[in-house]
Amino acid sequence: MKQEYSIELLEENDKVNFYSIKMAGEELTELEAFFEKFPEGCEYDDDIDVIISWIDQIAERGALERYFRPEGNYGDGVGVIPIEVGNKIRLYCLRLSDKILVFGNGGVKDARSWQESKTLAPYVKLLIDTSRFISSRIKDGTMVLVDKEIMGNINLTRYEKV
Amino acid sequence: MKRCSILEERRKRVNPEIRQSVALSFRIVDRIHDILQEKGLKQKDLALRLGKSEAEISKWMRGTHNFTIDTLVSIEEALDATIVQVYHPYTYTESEYRPMVMAEPEELYNNKT
């Protein structure tokens, strides 16, 4: 299945900019779609509150590597927001530098690992592919990371195995 | 500065206790990180001194760990440094106040006095 998407700037902060993936034809970015799945008053309020509190600390301190739990392949920057309270919700992200963080989507943990979860695996695979595409574009010069900004061609296409 | 309206709306409803708990956890792990750097140590050195795995220490250092008093005491012992002390501004004299600042960098303390 062909997927076309782009990387959209969501929030600017002093130390880090937050981006998210936006699928072609969708109104919301992946991060916005994630929060829409868990409105206030849902059974996962505590998890969502931890996630937002963590995001706000990252906004103040920068996306330092030590704050992330790696989830993808070694060194690809794909991670999950670490939650210990509740620990039922997973939100995945791609850390490009201390100053650039790209949020993907996530959901309820329903298996021992994302690889075993039919609902979560697509979100992680999307970020793993995105990491690979970005590395390739940085190498060929069609994309550059300048301070907190991603510059160049931010439109991506992938073919998802179904 | 660009903001995300959906996130902004949800931010307003975050439980203040959870927000404070995560903020304090970040301050604690930053303090531990600073001590490790000052002493030329790595997380694996702390793991060895505590008899824990490096993975366990990494898990603690991500900013959402709920540290127990026992754990904090064992880390202080292992690093021979103060991580958290109780702040009592009206009970202590100025000379006693300095070590009472909780896990804050020196410049914050200097700005307060």
Give the structure's gist in a few sentences:
The complex is a heterodimer of chains A (162) and B (113). Chain A is α+β, with helices and mostly antiparallel strands. Chain A has helices spanning 30-37, 45-61, 121-140, and strands at residues 2-12, 17-23, 69-70, 78-80, 89-97, 100-108, 143-146, 149-152, 155-159.
Notes on the structure:
- The complex is a heterodimer of chains A (162) and B (113).
- Chain A has 162 residues and is an alpha+beta fold.
- In chain A, 28% of the residues lie in helices and 33% in strands.
- Chain A has one domain.
- In chain A, a hairpin with a 4-residue loop joins strand 1 and strand 2 (17-23).
- Chain B has helices at residues 5-11, 16-38, 43-50, 54-60, 69-79, 94-97, 106-112.
- Chain B has one domain (15-112): 434 Repressor (Amino-terminal Domain), CATH 1.10.260.
- Chain B is 59% helix and 0% strand.
- Classes of the chains: A alpha+beta (162), B mainly alpha (113).
- The interface between A and B is medium-sized, with 33 and 28 residues.
Counted up, domains of chain B total: 1
Q: Kindly state the mean pLDDT of chain B as a whole number?
A: 87
Strand order of the largest sheet of chain A: 3-4-5-6-2-1-9
- Highest-level CATH class of chain B: Mainly Alpha
Element-level helix/strand string of chain A = EEHHEEEEHEEE
CATH architecture of chain B: Orthogonal Bundle
Which parts of chain B are unreliable, with pLDDT below 50 for 5 consecutive residues or more? none
Rounded Rg of chain B? 17 Å
Q: Give the number of helices of chain A.
A: 3
Shape of chain A: globular
Q: How many E strands of chain B?
A: 0
SS class of chain B: mainly alpha
Amount of helix of chain B: 55-70%
